[in-house]
Structures are given as structure tokens and as C-alpha cells.
Write a structure and sequence with these properties.
- By secondary structure, this protein is an all-alpha fold.
- It has a domain of 138 residues: Serine Threonine Protein Phosphatase 5, Tetratricopeptide repeat (Alpha Horseshoe).
- Helix content is 76%, strand content 0%.
- The longest helix is centred in the N-terminal third of the chain and has 22 residues.
């Protein structure tokens, strides 16, 4: 059995939160079609350049002219999300859903905002996140990002205090339920998209929390063997998170330095 020190546990403990944040920023669903508003296109251009406040100004103008345009509300919600104004983002996503009840992207985006509002100690927003990811999947059964986000949400609720109460770990029944659901979702992600390399890292974290060290190492190594795909998805900071998961802290620091230099 491999001994894992407290420092390493703490590093791995924050990796999922880092990655879900990075994945969220890379996969929030900007809607570019189904709207005739010129302000939508101006807003998208500003959003892509990182000018979130300016994007909101354009979306505000668009909504004044087209108050029934669900896409404008969804996209303004993305700008608020990027400014970490999650309540405003949730309000806009909710309005988009009211206007277009089958709007899978808006459910997904709202789920990400609820995720960011929650924590292990404040699970109510996370429950809402799971509900929204589930609804997005119902509306779009091949919604790979929603499966991944739901898996991360389940994984985040498996607490390390439970894991290290016994060796080998003995999860409470509720944690085992989260474990099984997360594992099913990560596996579904890879069924739908074998190139979704972060799902290997996610499964590695899940196995790690369960004390399945060899399985965890195998998943981490699979992810790190596809470094280019990780960089494309979440950049050097995300890659550093995967290296930290694997216990290669010196390499992780190097990737963080590259992220800063970029």
C-alpha cells in the first residue's frame, strides 16, 4: 500500500476545483445562432476578447430591442459568470430557460454557476447544479461537457475526512453513491468522446479518493500521455493540476510558471 502524505492529499484535494473552473471557462456555451440582434454579435466579439463589461452593455441594448431573445439572456449570463457575478448569471440563465424551455446550453451554464456558488459545506447549490446538468443531458443526450461537469460535482462531495478515517478507505453509503455516479459519468464522457482527456484525470482523482492507488496512477498516466490535448482544453494551469494529481510537483510548478509567462 502506498503512503500518501497530508501535503499531497491537500494538493489533490484542490485539483478538481481548479479544473472545473478552467473547463467551465473553456466550455460555457456561447450561443452564436438563433438571434437576429446585431448587439448579440457585438457582445460575443467583446466577450471573446475578455471585455465582459462591454459585452454586457451590448447585450443590454439587444435585450431592450428584443426582450424575448433567449440567446441574449444566455450570453449576458456568460459575461456575468466570467465576472464572478454568479447570482446575476443565474438570473439571466433562468430567464433564457423561461423563454426557451428546451435550451440545453442555458441549463448547463446555470449548472456551472450553481457549482461555483457551492462547496462541500454548502451543498444546496451543488444539488441545483446536478439537477441542471441532468436536465441538459435529458435535452441533449450526447452533451459530453454536462456529463463531465456532473461527474466533477459528484466527486467533490466525497470528503477526504471520510476517506482517511480508515485504511483502506471505507466510504459512507452516501459517498459510495456519489462515487458510483461519478464513475459512470466519467466513463460515459469517454464513450462519447475518447479524446476528452480530462475524464481520465477525473477518474484518477476518484480512484485516488477511494484508495485505489494503482488504478489512479494508470488514469493519471493516460491523461499525461496526451499533454497536447490537456493544453488545448485548459492550458498550462490545468496541465499543472494533472501533474499535481500525479504527485509530480516540480513539473507542476514549471507548468504554472509557463501559464504565468503566457
Amino acid at each position: 500500500m502506498r503512503y500518501v502524505n497530508k501535503k499531497t492529499r491537500n494538493i489533490v484535494g484542490i485539483v478538481l476545483v481548479i479544473l472545473i473552473g478552467l473547463v467551465a471557462y473553456s466550455t460555457v456555451r456561447v450561443v452564436t445562432a438563433e438571434s437576429k440582434s446585431k448587439y448579440k454579435h457585438l457582445g460575443i466579439a467583446e466577450y471573446k476578447d475578455g471585455n465582459y463589461k462591454k459585452a454586457i452593455e451590448y447585450y443590454n441594448q439587444g435585450i431592450k430591442s428584443n426582450p424575448d431573445d433567449a440567446c441574449l439572456f444566455n450570453n449576458r449570463g456568460l459575461a456575468y459568470y466570467s465576472l464572478e457575478q454568479y447570482d446575476k448569471a443565474i438570473s439571466d440563465y433562468t430567464k433564457a430557460i423561461e423563454l426557451k424551455p428546451d435550451f440545453a446550453d442555458a441549463y448547463y451554464n446555470r449548472g456551472l454557476a450553481y457549482f461555483r456558488k457551492g462547496s462541500y459545506y454548502n451543498f444546496e447549490p451543488r444539488k441545483k447544479a446536478i439537477s441542471d446538468f441532468t436536465k441538459a443531458i435529458e435535452l441533449k443526450p450526447d452533451f459530453v461537457d454536462a456529463y463531465y461537469a456532473r461527474a466533477v460535482t459528484y466527486t467533490e462531495q466525497i470528503h477526504y475526512h471520510h476517506k482517511y478515517a480508515a485504511i483502506p478507505p471505507k466510504f459512507p453509503s452516501e459517498d459510495m453513491d456519489y462515487y458510483n455516479k461519478a464513475l459512470a459519468d466519467y466513463t460515459k464522457v469517454l464513450d462519447l468522446d475518447p479524446s476528452y482527456v480530462l475524464a481520465y484525470q477525473g477518474r484518477g482523482n476518484l480512484f485516488y479518493r477511494h484508495g485505489d492507488w494503482d488504478l489512479a496512477d494508470r488514469e493519471y498516466d493516460t491523461a499525461l500521455g496526451r499533454e497536447t490535448e490537456i493544453l488545448k482544453k485548459v492550458g498550462y494551469e490545468g496541465l499543472a493540476g494533472v501533474y499535481n494529481s500525479r504527485g509530480r510537483n516540480n513539473l507542476a510548478w514549471g507548468k504554472l510558471e509557463e501559464a504565468i509567462s503566457d
